[in-house]
């Protein structure tokens, strides 16, 4: 009896304690980034460090949002990320449904070929991609960057949506065919509404991947007015000798806001999409 009671006490005390330690380890960089953006530069190098901000200042945020360059980078990132997400969703839904429902020659080989592109590092593709974009006049265009990011996001997106489509009973589609519903009607009126968790998960994945991109944006966009947020931060706000850490942390906090809002709004869809798509019933 005492042993069972002790095990119960340990379970209720140790598990929350370990969870607190784990969350503290994960969230501390975000906390330090946030409080650094609210400090003066003179307070960043004092010893011992100031773990809390007693008198937060907002002059870094006021200065940042008064700069037209940062707002341009922010706008470009939103345009590229949203466009990449919409294009990825459209193509992944079509391809995923085709791989799930249709039978054609070399179907497994085609799926394997698409997934094998994920094994290639981005750096190995950039030289060939740059040369091809230069010959087609796609350098320094948002369209070219959107195409590159969509291509990078598609393999995982197609595979994930295919798993969702596989879990939907074919009998529903057969019943719709009997009622005279077309193939496109079946897809958009029956299959996609039942695949909402997977669609949201793929949309969030595509948006985060394109929002966090650095290599494609830095290579394919060289004109400052067309740059997105990440290369803009690395080029404009990070110097070669000295760093304005408070300003850099202010930029980083501002750039994480869309991702934070995205997770707060669609967290349940993201979790259910990843878990329910992982197991086929």
UniProtKB/TrEMBL annotation:
<feature type="transmembrane region" description="Helical">
    <location>
        <begin position="12"/>
        <end position="34"/>
    </location>
</feature>
<feature type="transmembrane region" description="Helical">
    <location>
        <begin position="78"/>
        <end position="99"/>
    </location>
</feature>
<feature type="transmembrane region" description="Helical">
    <location>
        <begin position="245"/>
        <end position="266"/>
    </location>
</feature>
<dbReference type="InterPro" id="IPR000515">
    <property type="entry name" value="MetI-like"/>
</dbReference>
<dbReference type="InterPro" id="IPR050901">
    <property type="entry name" value="BP-dep_ABC_trans_perm"/>
</dbReference>
<feature type="transmembrane region" description="Helical">
    <location>
        <begin position="111"/>
        <end position="133"/>
    </location>
</feature>
<keyword id="KW-0472">Membrane</keyword>
<keyword id="KW-0813">Transport</keyword>
<keyword id="KW-0762">Sugar transport</keyword>
<protein>
    <submittedName>
        <fullName>Carbohydrate ABC transporter permease</fullName>
    </submittedName>
</protein>
<feature type="domain" description="ABC transmembrane type-1">
    <location>
        <begin position="74"/>
        <end position="266"/>
    </location>
</feature>
<keyword id="KW-0812">Transmembrane</keyword>
<keyword id="KW-1133">Transmembrane helix</keyword>
<feature type="transmembrane region" description="Helical">
    <location>
        <begin position="145"/>
        <end position="165"/>
    </location>
</feature>
<dbReference type="Pfam" id="PF00528">
    <property type="entry name" value="BPD_transp_1"/>
</dbReference>
<feature type="transmembrane region" description="Helical">
    <location>
        <begin position="186"/>
        <end position="208"/>
    </location>
</feature>
<keyword id="KW-1003">Cell membrane</keyword>
<comment type="similarity">
    <text>Belongs to the binding-protein-dependent transport system permease family.</text>
</comment>
